[in-house]
Design a protein that fits this description.
Strand content: under 5%
Order of helices and strands: HHHHHHHHH
Shape: globular
Radius of gyration: 20 Å
Helix content: 55-70%
Distance between the termini: 20 Å
Bound molecules: iron/sulfur cluster
Length: about 250
């Protein structure tokens, strides 16, 4: 228990993404204090730079999906038709949100573990050898891709785990007594949404860089977009949740 005069924020670590190296609240977090001594790199600057292009990511996704004849609104409506957790026989494992986030987890993992990135880096090396591109330009591109991959990998499991937590909390009426800003499923939805949006922005960086992989990346972006919309439908008041420290 933190005493009232402590600079530590009580329970802040319950509503974060556990990415301490990118967290602006390390000095006020008991968990970080215990685990301590990380190499911090201006976390706020990093996230601000990444979040600047989320609107652009969504616009791009809608445009490209349309070009491929995919109706993003319809695919979500089909899933939403079955999102209620009120039916007695509805099980969390069968819920569309659980299925879609699990699909994203496995497909995203397969994508990252495939040879796509290696082949892409070989292509970049050839372009340098052929004098088509400058070393410094390629280095910058590789650094951006590495950063994007770091974000994708960090949230790969987290999105599924947090979404499942939302479903579990919603299937229990315990939280109905609490105000919106304290309901656990709103807090889990909020951090799941942040993780999804950051992942989408990171995939967009790969989408822009790797022209030959745009179809496979588009599929992953669509899974994330569906998850985002399902979460918003399940916990429409999630934005009201106040995460200690982060939202105060
Ligand atoms: S609040 Fe920040 S420092 Fe504490 S556990 Fe979460 S990410 Fe790490």
């Amino acid at each position: 228990m933190d005493d009232i005069n402590s600079t530590f924020i009580s329970g802040i670590y319950n509503w974060c993404d556990r990415w301490c190296e990118r967290c602006a609240f390390t000095a006020r977090c008991r968990v970080f204090e215990r685990e301590k001594e990380r190499d911090l790199k201006e976390p706020e600057d990093f996230w601000n730079a990444l979040s600047e292009n989320f609107k652009e990511t969504l616009e791009m996704l809608h445009l490209i999906a349309e070009e491929h004849g995919i109706d993003l609104e319809q695919t979500v409506k089909d899933s939403e038709a079955d999102t209620s957790l009120e039916e007695e026989d509805k099980r969390v494992d069968e819920h569309p949100l659980n299925i879609i986030t699990s699909e994203y987890l496995f497909e995203g993992k397969d994508w990252i573990e495939s040879s796509k990135l290696e082949e892409y880096c070989e292509k970049l090396t050839q372009q340098i050898d052929l004098g088509m591109r400058q070393v410094s330009e390629v280095n910058d591109e590789v650094a951006k891709i590495e950063e994007a991959l770091e974000v994708i990998q960090w949230y790969l499991f987290f999105i599924h785990v947090k979404s499942k937590r939302v479903l579990n909390d919603l299937s229990d009426d315990f939280w109905e007594e609490y105000p919106e800003e304290e309901k656990s499923y709103n807090g889990s939805t909020k951090i799941a949404m942040i993780s999804i949006e950051r992942s989408m922005q990171a995939w967009k960086i790969l989408f822009d860089a790797m022209e030959s992989e745009q179809d496979s990346i588009l599929n992953l972006l669509i899974l994330l977009d569906k998850s985002r919309k399902l979460l918003a439908a399940l916990a429409p008041n999630y934005a009201q949740f106040i995460r200690p420290g982060f939202d105060e």
